[in-house]
Every structure is written in structure tokens, then in C-alpha cells.
Specification:
It is a single chain. The chain has about 300 residues and is mainly α. Among the domains are: about 5-90; about 115-240, Topoisomerase I, Chain A, domain 3 (Alpha-Beta Complex). It is about 60% helix and about 5% strand. It is built from 15 helices and 3 strands. It has a 3-stranded antiparallel β-sheet with strand order 1-2-3. A hairpin with a 2-residue loop joins strand 1 (about 150-155) and strand 2. Helix 7 packs parallel to helix 12. The longest helix is centred in the C-terminal third of the chain and has 22 residues, at about 215-235. The protein is globular, with a radius of gyration of 23 Å.
Length: about 300
């Protein structure tokens, strides 16, 4: 049985209804299936699925291809016996356990030094917001006009930033640092009135790719430009970019929060995690939940009383 690229629109709707995936995950799944279908496979053939996974998923570490093809088989194959046989025998690419779970830790002062070497003004602002609040780079990129507003707190100026995060979770963050406020406001006041986003360059994308309708594609390209700029700044500061990633700004923020409060609930709230097990993963991967116990044992401090 053959499938066609036109099946993707219905598959996308099915993913939203049956799997409740985010827009970005849905897009990634559809891209993987589109690549699979371009090879003109027989979707009832287990060999075609596994050959595709061997060629693309295992060699290139695209581990999501297995999940995408499994979902497509569940959606498209009507014969239950064929569907079950394919899903149960489809090769699953094993995640490489050598991938670093915890990269190099940089202090806030070291990160600010890196930010000073970022060339593009908007990328400096993105990195600054990430550093001060622990927000994901993608969440900053999605900020639309009027999501950043000056306010007052206890008689002092603050910047209120309304974030729409993963799974469309709402989050509100505040910038209290006066210098950071000035840098952010200086940047956003230069944005043209017709621009919908603060940090996504629509005009640049249209010039390169024609009509761009996918917000996910826009964000991904602009994220790539941000990461390239950040990599150059890291290298200028003598830091191997293989030891650092944009998400490590969030991990470094989490470490500073833990060092100050030692409270999992505070950390969960500031990282805007719906599930505390995700917050615990941050601590487990870095070993921070045990660092004070090691300190007390090695330094002879007694906290048992």
C-alpha cells in the first residue's frame, strides 16, 4: 500500500487530536514522515520502515524518526494485523548514552562576559533575558509585541515579560536589574511598528524562502542564527562551544536558584515546570541535590542536630 504527501495534512490533525503534541513536535513528526514518503515506500512493508530508520535515524541520531513512523503506521494502516506486526518489529534507534547530560558550568559573571562578545544586539538581549530568568531560548524568540511592559514593584521600575512556553504554558517573569532594563528597552523601542515579533526577522526569512507561514520554521531559523552568534562569542572567550548550549543558560540559572534557596518548590516555580519530576532531573543530572552533603562530610560539619 502506498501513501502520498497529501496524507500529511490529515496526519497532522490526527496528531493534534490523538497525541496532543505541541506545534513544534507535530512539525518535527510531519517532517520525518514527509522524508519517509518521498522515498515512495510501501507503508505495509516492515522492511521499508526499518531501512529508513537504519539510513536516517541510526546513522544521523534522529531518534524521533522511530516515534514519528510508529505514529504514522498507527494512523494510516487499516489492517490491524499488519499494523501491530510493523509497530512491534520496527527498529528503535538507541539513544547514545555518551551524550553529555551536564555541560560545563559557567557563573553568572562568566555568562555576562560571553554576552558582551555577542555581535547581534537582539541576540545579546535574548541571552540576557535567558541568563537573568532561566527562560528557554525558544520562549524568548516567541515573544510578540506588547509582551514586554514596564511596571513598578515596591516603588521601583521593573520589566514584566509575559511568556508562552512549551505546551502553551503561561509564565510571567520580571527583570529588576536597571541596566538590563535599559538594554532591553533600548532594543525593543527600535523595532518597527509592523513587526509582530521582537526577535524573529520576518523580512529576512521571506527574502530567502518566499512566503513563510509556519511560526515553527521562523523560530527554528532565527534560533540557528542566535546559536551561531553565541558560539562565536563562546570561542572568543576561550570556551569550547561543544561544552555549552543555549539551554545551559537555563541549567546555570537553576543551579544559582538551588544554591540560594535549596527548595525544590521554588526551583520548580521559577523554571515553570508542570511536573516536579522534570525539576528533579535538573538536580539529578548535575548532582546538586547531594553537593551540600558531600561538603559537610568532607569538611567535618555536623548538621544532624
Amino acid at each position: 500500500m502506498k501513501a502520498h504527501i497529501t496524507d500529511l495534512s490529515m496526519f497532522k490533525m490526527w496528531l493534534g487530536e490523538k497525541r496532543n503534541l505541541s506545534e513544534s513536535s507535530t512539525h518535527v513528526y510531519c517532517e520525518a514522515v514527509e522524508r519517509f514518503l518521498k522515498g515512495n515506500p510501501d507503508i505495509d512493508s516492515l522492511v521499508d520502515y526499518n531501512n529508513f530508520i537504519i539510513e536516517h535515524a541510526i546513522k544521523k541520531r534522529c531518534y524521533h524518526y522511530y516515534s514519528a513512523l510508529k505514529a504514522f503506521a498507527e494512523y494510516k494502516i487499516a489492517d490491524a494485523n499488519i499494523r501491530i506486526r510493523i509497530i512491534e518489529n520496527m527498529i528503535k534507534a538507541q539513544v547514545n548514552n555518551d551524550i553529555k547530560m551536564e555541560r560545563k558550568y559557567l557563573t553568572e559573571e562568566e555568562i555576562l562576559e560571553v554576552i558582551n562578545h555577542i555581535k547581534e544586539p537582539k541576540h545579546r538581549v535574548i541571552a540576557l533575558i535567558q541568563t537573568l530568568t532561566g527562560v528557554r531560548a525558544g520562549d524568548v524568540l516567541r515573544l510578540k509585541r506588547d509582551n514586554i511592559m514596564p511596571e513598578e514593584y515596591k516603588g521601583e521600575p521593573v520589566l514584566r515579560i509575559n511568556i508562552t512556553g512549551k505546551g502553551k504554558k503561561r509564565n510571567v517573569i520580571f527583570i529588576h536589574d536597571v541596566v538590563a532594563q535599559e538594554i532591553i528597552m533600548e532594543y525593543i523601542t527600535q523595532i518597527f511598528n509592523h513587526e509582530e515579533f521582537y526577535f524573529i526577522e520576518l523580512g529576512k526569512m521571506k527574502n530567502r524562502h518566499g512566503n513563510i507561514t509556519s511560526e515553527f520554521r521562523l523560530m527554528r531559523m532565527n534560533y540557528t542564527w542566535y546559536w551561531q552568534d553565541l558560539k562565536e562569542a563562546l570561542q572568543t572567550c576561550g570556551i569550547n562551544f561543544a561544552d555549552w548550549a543555549t539551554h545551559d543558560m537555563r541549567r546555570a540559572f537553576a543551579r544559582r536558584v538551588w544554591e540560594r534557596y535549596k527548595d525544590i518548590h521554588v526551583l520548580q516555580s521559577l523554571l515553570n515546570h508542570a511536573n516536579p519530576t522534570v525539576t528533579l532531573r535538573y538536580l539529578n543530572q548535575s548532582g546538586l541535590q547531594n553537593v551540600d552533603y558531600h561538603h559537610d562530610m568532607q569538611m567535618g560539619k555536623d548538621n544532624t542536630q
